[in-house]
Amino acid sequence: MIKVLLVDDHEIFRDGMKFVLNRIQDIEVVAEAGNGQESIELVQRHSPDLVFMDVQMPELNGIKATEIISRLYPSIKVVALSMFGEEAYLQGMVEAGAIGFLLKNIEKRELTLAIHQLVQGRSYYSPELLPYFTNKYLSDKQFPDGIRFTNREVEVIQQIALGKSNQEIADTLYISKRTVDGHKANLIAKTGSKNVLSLLIYAIKNELVEIK
Fold first, then answer.
1. Taking each helix axis from N to C terminus, what angle separates 177-191 and 166-173, rounded to the nearest 10 degrees?
2. Same domain membership, residue 125 and residue 143
3. Fewer CB within a 10 Å sphere, N or C end of the chain?
């Protein structure tokens, strides 16, 4: 079972989300919290696989809670929950360690897909958020001093932007999955990214990928 922790200060939303999640095969909501401080305590107690984290909450907001959880429990994956008016907080969640972003109006089918990608270590964000990333991060094409990318590294980033898994990237580029793993690790280190999602944001900002 995929163990999920729900963190949101609105009980009605948590109830609705829990109702949907518990009816998806192999997913179980093991706990729920009304603020960031509670979420940290419940993570320690229940060791969930995935944490759905609201951004704006009392006592301890989602950004700070995500930062603490990502630092203390790096194997636990945190995904942000957002309303349309909360885009300004998304960069903070990326920097804190969130690997995905879901809008609260997400449908069950997309939610199921997102969860299974996230627990496999793949980033996922609602398609409606792509214009936010594009408008905010697409500026000039100036790379920090000393950073250079090989043609293969650029190809790997472009495949990541298409949402492909490591095996799918390997098949497309006719290289081994282990080689893809190595390229990803090198790219994250080279760009100073915290995870694949922040690497993708870097790629958008510096026009390494084309947004259509």
1. 110
2. no
3. C
* Interatomic CA distance for residues 90 and 129, integer angstroms: 10
Q: Is the full-model pTM beyond 0.70?
A: no
Q: Which of 136, 133, 174, 131 is nearest to 156 (CA)?
A: 174
47 within domain boundaries:
yes
Is residue 212 in a domain? no
Residue 212's pLDDT band (cuts 50, 70, 90): low
Record the tokens describing residue 176, joined without a space.
């081994």
For residue range 28-82, list pLDDT tens digits in order. 999 999 999 999 999 999 999 999 999 988 889 999 999 999 999 989 999 998 8
Amino acid at residue number 104: K
CA–CA gap between residue 205 and residue 174 (Å, rounded): 28
> 128 and 25, same structural domain?
yes
Nearest to 48 by CA among 66, 26, 28, 62: 28
Rounded CA gap, 187 and 183, in Å?
6
How confident is the model over 163-182, as pLDDT tens digits?
A: 888 888 989 888 888 888 88
Beta-ladder partners of 102: 81
User: Taking a C-beta distance cutoff of 8 angstroms, is the pair 32, 7 a contact?
Assistant: yes
**Residue 59 near residue 35 (C-beta atoms within 8 A):** yes
Give the domain CATH number at 105. 3.40.50.2300
